# Entry
Amino acid sequence: MIKTNLKKDKAQAPTPQEPRIVSKTNEEWKQELTKEQYEVCRLKGTEYPFTGEYWNCKEDGIYRCVCCGNELFDSETKFDSGTGWPSFWAPINPHNLDLKLDTSYGMRRIEVLCNKCGAHLGHLFDDGPHPTGKRFCINSVSLELKKAEEKNMKYIEEVDERGERKEQQKGRGL
Ligand SMILES: [Zn+2]
# Structure
């Protein structure tokens, strides 16, 4: 007599470190994104400074990955870096980003990617303002601002020294 054993399969247990959730081929991305979004996010391009939608944007809200909607940066951490690219001193959650050493163009830079879909976002530098000293230099085209419609979001009483670092950061690229 054959017993059927219907024990639950242990393989279904969630893995602690989830891999990228959104995985698409380049062809699929090409169809979903605009030409510029595709070139920056999937081919690691860089938009021209002072041309993007958000470099000078001061609206409140959450900046999300244009490819997959992953929440990346809060407008509260955005500051005017003078570079012509949207700049933030901290991500919403470090786990939403992936950081990689990038040695292209003979430079040693830290590349910033979306941890969910692998989109190239920009680079990370150590010359940001208080309180982290970090500068996440991000392409506008890789972001989508979800504006805060009502002031029911958390607000931090912190008017920092925005703008003070303008001079030192002039001319630095992504
Ligand atoms: Zn993404």
